[in-house]
Amino acid sequence: MTEKAKPLTDLAIANAAVMQPIGDIATNAGIPEEAVELYGRYKAKIDVTKLPVAKSFGKVVLVTATSPTPAGEGKSTVTVGLADALARLGQKSMIALREPSLGPVMGVKGGAAGGGYAQVLPMEEINLHFNGDIHAITTANNALSAMIDNHLHQGNALQIDPRRITWKRALDMNDRALRHVTIGLGGPGQGIPREDGFDITVASEIMAVFCLATSLTDLKERLSEMVIGYTYGREAVTVRDLGVQGALTLLLKEAFKPNLVQTIEGTPALIHGGPFANIAHGCNSLMATNTARQLADIVVTEAGFGSDLGAEKFMDIKARKGGFAPDAVVVVTTIRALKMHGGVAKTELGETNVQAVQKGIVNLEKHVETVRAFGVQPVIALNRFITDSQTELDFVLHWCKENGVRAALTDVWGHGGAGGEDLAKNVLELLEEPNNFAPLYDVEQPVIDKITTIVQKVYGGKGIVLTEKAKKDLLQIEKNGWDILPICMAKTQYSFSDDPKKLGRPDDFVITIREINPKLGAGFLVCLTGDIMTMPGLPKVPAALNMDIDKDGNAVGLM
Question: What residues contact 508, with CB distance under 8 A and at least 6 apart?
Fold first, then answer.
């Protein structure tokens, strides 16, 4: 498609694209017909039990980014464009991405399926309900809540203390009014009154379990291990104690199959699972990643937000549990983001300001250091915007060269895979080199040491401070022998610190650990820092205000 013919919006570009029948995409990817379960003409689920036994597994390329800003970095767009570029260079590539959550879609993002000519399709359906996976997880989460409250109502044989129930209900929407609620009002026939609350579905432990399980059997076992609260004697109560793990697995069995779609250029993409990276582990499902590794020579995947969140959790949690290592890491950044980290307001980003780029590049520098701390070399994807000046671009590329970092200018939004070929060539060169990947800490280390390692080596902070609540949590965790689990930090995505206003590369800071929540099904300890919340709120002007349908039922304003 020529430059003049390009539509102006992501949605218009997606609507103008000609998709291939999903059966053809599956055939080209080596997926046998009996493993493909059609969800319409352009979507399918994959029954992984009907795939041929893999003789080898593909290499994994992780895409991460600098600390996000309102200016946008385009991480998912680069992920899609890189896979398309690799395919253009003759590589058998496949994408593994998270599913969009309706909360951010209706809130800030407006959509999360790439952008421009580097999108996964059908974009509208992927962003809205997408095969019902997140709804299934919501249903399983709330079915467990109903079982807990019914158990209380029917006599409470397990002696669950209603004041110490830790399990919350869930909704796939940003709704701050549901953070704290009171349930069971209205008399004896309406249940036991108690305080409760809602998490956004993608912060639910069931979402994390869903994304870290390797089979239906493993899924059921992990669900059974989830702690829902404590007895009057302060003993942990699990899903296994309630005996509902079978029912929860039944609710999830179809959703657990990875979803197959395609990019604008026909590259196969598996989109499955969607935990947030600031309050969960931020990676698509192990099922999807391992399925892609089984089918392709190169798997391009992404982890949420910057390397301090999604990438750290990918390497310390997902790769550790999945038994594989990232073979290359791409760090996405933009001139606009670096200028914001250098102190420039969003309204002034269109003006050339090399001094601000120079000041803000310390953020990129820290993300490079973090990736290298895991024994992997990064490639910088400098995602080009039309407002970037050549002077600014040259400064960043020169900085990369001076610091021994591979870098490539990319424009996959405007040119699809063709705009990412230089990046793809750099990635291919890196894939030929050995790396020394290793997680940052040993799970056998004390909890305090593991958290401190993340704060010092990943965030660049001095150390940590535990609130009295966190200290009590830690005593309970150690008493129950749960201290050998990996750490999942819940922290603002905007800063290395726990203060979202400290941009760039802050130093001389400590991280306050507010709570430590054991997630035994997921297999990690969630450390809540600063003011981070597990149920976000909508912004003053939600993206939903721009959304509509036309007279033919087509989406308007989704991106």
Answer: 462
* Residue 444 is assigned to a ligand binding site: no
Q: 194 catalytic, yes or no?
A: no
Q: Do residues 316 and 326 touch, judged by C-beta distance below 8 A?
A: no
Which is the catalytic residue, given 43, 45, 98, 514? Answer: 98
Multiple choice CATH, 58-129+263-431, 3.40.50.300, 3.60.21.10, 3.50.50.60, 3.40.630.10 = 3.40.50.300
Tell me if 306 is assigned to a ligand binding site: no
110 is in an annotated binding site: no
pTM of the model: 0.94
Backbone phi, then psi, for 119, in 5-degree steps? -125, 155
Does the annotation mark 277 as catalytic?
yes
* Numbered ranges of CATH 3.30.1510.10 in the chain: 133-252
Q: Are 210 and 136 in contact (CB under 8 A)?
A: no
Q: What are phi and psi of 263, to 5 degrees?
A: -85, 175
Q: Is 359 a catalytic residue?
A: no
| Backbone torsions φ then ψ of 545, nearest 5 degrees | -65, -20
Where are the domain boundaries for CATH 3.40.50.300 in the chain?
A: 58-129+263-431
Q: Which of 256, 385, 395, 482 is catalytic?
A: 385
> Taken in order 115, 121, 127, 128, is the CA torsion positive or negative?
positive
Q: Is 98 an active-site residue?
A: yes
**pLDDT tens digits, residue range 210-237?**
999 999 999 999 999 999 999 999 999 9
| Numbered ranges of CATH 3.10.410.10 in the chain | 447-529
Helices assigned H by DSSP within 189-329? 205-212, 216-224, 239-242, 245-252, 286-295, 312-313, 319-322
For this structure, is 6 an active site residue?
no
228-278 confidence digits (pLDDT tens): 999 999 999 999 999 999 999 999 999 999 999 999 999 999 999 999 888
Cβ neighbours of 462 (radius 10 Å): 14
The CA distances from residue 194 to 191, 197, 359, 449, 473, in Å, are 9, 10, 51, 36, 21
Question: Was domain 133-252 assigned CATH 3.30.1510.10?
Answer: yes
Tell whether 76 is in a known binding site.
yes
Find all residues with CB under 8 Å of 409, minimum gap 6, and list them: 382, 384, 393, 397, 422
Q: Give the separation between CA 73 and CA 366, rounded to whole angstroms.
A: 16
Pick the CATH number of 447-529 from 3.10.410.10, 3.40.50.300, 3.40.50.170, 3.10.180.10: 3.10.410.10
- Asked if 305 is an active-site residue, the reply is yes
